[in-house]
Amino acid sequence: MTGARIHTPRVALIAALDQQDGIGRNGGLLCHLPGDLKHFKEITTGHCIVMGRKTYESLPKGALPHRTNIVLTSSNAANFPGCIIARSLNEALSHCKKDPLFIIGGGEVYRASLHLADTLYITRIHHTFEGVDTFFPAFDPAEWELVEEEHREKDANHRYGFSFLTYARKDQ
Ligand SMILES: NC(=O)c1ccc[n+]([C@@H]2O[C@H](COP(=O)([O-])OP(=O)(O)OC[C@H]3O[C@@H](n4cnc5c(N)ncnc54)[C@H](OP(=O)(O)O)[C@@H]3O)[C@@H](O)[C@H]2O)c1
Fold first, then answer.
1. What's the gap between Cα 91 and its chain centre?
2. What is the rounded average pLDDT of the residues 111-137?
3. CA 156 to centroid of ligand 1, rounded, Å
4. With a threshold of 0.90, does the pTM exceed it?
5. In 25-164, which ranges are continuous DSSP H helix?
6. Over the stretch 71-107, which tens digit does the pLDDT of each residue have?
7. Which run of H or of E encompasses 71?
8. Probe ligand 1: pick from 29, 91, 108, max atoms within 8 Å of CB?
9. Which CATH architecture has domain 11-169?
10. Where in the chain are the domains?
């Protein structure tokens, strides 16, 4: 960790990206990285998480425990056990009464919410995957300061190396 300064997020996007900003294919993640799942759990536990309907449907066990799960959908018939349903981003945010909240994907929701974020928790996977169909939106490096970074090598449990990168929006 560089630990240049303590940064407290208000609205954060959290995502795992490959080297071409890919985040998903065929409705699922690009790979299984237990170290990244642990990192995600540590950062988001106890907080509100906001996700799109397709990301909710990709979760193997439904709502994530110990978090307020908010699912965005335009459907009036939606019923996602253990989740609050929101039909707009504003409605989703109105359910989160305390900072910080985490936008956890997928691509459509990241695109719609990037402008609201003051923090990006990016896991950069050191690989470019084939067949990627969902991407993280481009963000201007000039607008963001890298405030933390930590690198992990590949090992027996991780087929790819990866880096945890935390960006804070400049001029807050
Ligand atoms: N690598 C990562 O960190 C990461 C994280 C999360 C997800 N993913 C991957 O990303 C992919 C899914 O992403 P995606 O872009 O296809 O879908 P998504 O963003 O998860 O969900 C899109 C759906 O969310 C609803 N929605 C989005 N914005 C809305 C708004 N403003 N108001 C109301 N409803 C809204 C709509 O649902 P309705 O159609 O029901 O109206 C829309 O079809 C999967 O492959 C998943 O594994 C990767």
1. 19
2. 97
3. 31
4. yes
5. 34-44, 53-58, 89-94, 107-113
6. 999 999 989 999 999 999 999 999 998 889 999 999 9
7. strand 68-72
8. 108
9. 3-Layer(aba) Sandwich (3.40)
10. 11-169
